[in-house]
Amino acid sequence: MSRTIKFHLPGLVGLIEAVLDLPDGVRDAPGSYRPRGMALVAHPHPLLGGTMDNKVAQTLARTFAQLGYVTLRTNFRGVGTSEGTHDDGKGEADDLVAVVTWMKDPYNWQGIPELEQHAWPLLAGELPLAMAGFSFGSYVSSYVAAKLQELDMAPERLIMVGSATSKWEVAPVPKDTIVIHGEVDDVIPLSSVLDWARPQELVVQVIPGADHFFHRKLHCIRDLILRAWHGQVDPTFGNNHG
């Protein structure tokens, strides 16, 4: 069974292209495995080449899968085969709220042939949701998390990587949000993220020597997230650096 499943789901302005990343437990025992939860990953800026296949977005998805989450990555409006046009974050946030609502309905997963033998979709309504966003995706995710809170669908935890605080007005986020930034990010200065985090008393985890795209530092993102969930790095990852 493939680790990823590609499909389309309905959005507010047309179809949304999506990839589902499966944990090993689901792939090995699709009829009985209960995922730890579901996760949603948001990619960087569409007008600057950002897609759901961005390396940071893939790292976030694979890390969630390693933690036992069924993880969805979607292309924003106008990216890949997702319909619609770029809406500077507002429409993209509305889309992701709609995606979460779609994810939570067990009936919707029944339309994906590759999941016919899977038991977990029946649990979709009760599985907790985690979210992560990179760069522009972090900006969008901050507003999605706030809207889901209003709808009594708050994610159990949010991850912000390369938070785009110098480009857009990123919304305040929950106290337990994992904020990861590169020391030498030349797109979003670390000082800007600290200025945003300071009044919220958020901890910012800085990866030394990392640029905005975390070149040769993807494993550091992975390890920080695993420590937050497990308290230690999962040894099965070994030294396979990104």
Per-chain topology:
Blueprint: E1 4-10, E2 15-21, H1 24-28, E3 37-42, H2 55-66, E4 69-74, H3 90-103, H4 106-109, E5 129-134, H5 136-150, E6 157-161, E7 178-182, H6 190-197, E8 204-207, H7 218-230
Parallel strand pairs: 3-4, 3-5, 5-6, 6-7, 7-8
Antiparallel strand pairs: 1-2, 2-4
Helix pairs in contact: 2-7, 3-5
Question: Summary?
Answer:
The radius of gyration is 17 Å and the shape is globular.
Write the CATH architecture name. 3-Layer(aba) Sandwich
Residue fraction in strands:
15-25%
Rg: 17 Å
Quaternary state of this entry equals single chain
Q: Tally the helices: what do you get? A: 7
The helix/strand class is alpha/beta
List its salient traits.
disordered C terminus, alpha/beta, 8-stranded mixed sheet, about 240 residues, globular, 7 helices, Rossmann fold, single chain
How would you describe what is shown here?
This protein is an alpha/beta fold and 242 residues long. The protein has one domain: 3-Layer(aba) Sandwich (Rossmann fold), CATH 3.40.50.1820. 29% of the residues lie in helices and 19% in strands. The chain has seven helices and eight strands; from the N terminus they run ββαβαβααβαββαβα. It has an eight-stranded mixed beta sheet with strand order 1-2-4-3-5-6-7-8, with helices on both faces. A hairpin with a 4-residue loop joins strand 1 and strand 2. Helix 2 packs parallel to helix 7 and helix 3 crosses helix 5. It is globular, with a radius of gyration of 17 Å.
